[in-house]
Amino acid sequence: MKSSIIISAPHIVVPQSYWKPLLGEILRDADLITEAQLQTVLRDQQEYKDQKIGEILALRGWLKQETVDFFAEEWTSCLQQGPKYPIGEYLKQASLLKQKDIEYILELQQKIPVKFGEIAVHQELIKETTLNFFLDNLFGQASINTLFLS
Known about the structure:
elongated, two-stranded antiparallel sheet
């Protein structure tokens, strides 16, 4: 995550803490929804003004309500606090992994020396791009060499 944004000449720098992406953008950037899904939801919201974006996503079955709630209510504080938990805990809080998935991955880690995220992606429990989103934003290190944390 970048620490500042240059708005215009004469280089007005705005700290990243002033920039709060919209929920739909966050979910799209995390590869939890597509751009087409986001546009559809935004059109739906124009017709159903009393519905929030997250509610529409859940009603359409594109995301669990718990996942939407995590990003709407918890994500910003997770970013501000910095990493306090292992990656699996954040994925569980976002309802992207279940406790049994985490236990299974940890059990596999006892048998083979592979990082948690690598197993989760290999087992198709989470997309690599979604894992990268979490690692980059929470741990500041999503790259091919540091893709997976224990």
